[in-house]
Fold this protein.
Amino acid sequence: MTASKTASKTQTADCRLYLITPPALPDLDGFAGQLEAALAAGDVAALQIRLKDAPEAEIARAVKALSPVAHARDVAVILNDRPDLARALGCDGVHVGRSDPSVAEARKLMGPNAMIGATCHDSRHLGMEAAEAGADYVAFGAFFPTATKETDHRPEPEILTIWQETMQTPCVAIGGITPENCRGLVAAGADFLAVSAGVWSRPGGPAEAVRAFAAEIAQGLGER
């Protein structure tokens, strides 16, 4: 995932990390340092800035502080929920949920080169609708319990395998993912692992977490 568009799955099979910020960043400068350490430790495709219920000024400060860190490593910056704000702040893309503007509305606001992702819970039907509307990726989950957000859906890894067999649009696995439980999702076919607490709350720190994920991703890809 780059600042252009997500690569087609006709290229070599891979699985990459997609980092999501904690829901609040009271120490923005400190978090920027954590982000820099995480990105230096291994391959990361994207950073989603997800500050639920934060005022626009706070989101703008986060984008201004974190985008240079991400872009220095060729990591795309995606804003959660708000295509209008994502465009105004110069983000590379936006992720829309079921209660947010539609994929089509986000595309109209952000233009043809923006990355648009969509939450699809445990539904291949929602995934196909999003893909047909022009989403660059679809996100399934939560695969595991998570304290980051309330979840009502718990898909099985098989949804990733079926998606890989039938669709070209990349799929993201999300929800409670850690180095200890991610290998099966990679083996099942996830193109990206969306991770928040699994990196930022890792006892050994974000850099150690990214290295641990890289090792497990390599094992999972070997099992495909």
